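Input sequence (163 aa), recorded before submission:
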Amino acid sequence: MLDLLPDLCDEHGDKVEILAPLFTDYGAAHTFWGQVVTVRCKEDNSRVREMVATPGTGKVLVVDGEGSLRRALMGDQLVKLAIENGWAGVVINGAIRDAAAIGEMGLGVKALAVCPMKTEKHGLGEVDVPVTFAGVTIEPGDYLYADINGILIAREPLSHHSF
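Predicted structure, token format:
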């Protein structure tokens, strides 16, 4: 396993912002990175489903569920879809479900918690908007890097000997 974030902080400390350590690793891929696509939605994962159904090659989906833990914004079926479409990972400011299955799936998934309740689907939510949580504003097109040490955001891609 790679300790990517400490190295990136050492090499690029002036170019990165670190999210508050609120997130738990749920996916089998603990190290992931890519360009950010954002979704803002609360207790409705319609836009999340739409996004993971699109080609995500090398991208990270950042979902701002406004910290709600009352509904799961992603489960094993959406993780399967994300893997099929080449997404590198997902960070959810909210909850997931099907944690045992997701733990065996090859996608980086970080979320605040688990909740067994699925969301309502009313087509609500916004895509490609700035989102702010865990002390950082994340813009569409930023770059996210994640490992077991945490999550960091950079405005431009970072170079590292491991890439």
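Checked by second reader. The longest strand covers residues 32-40.
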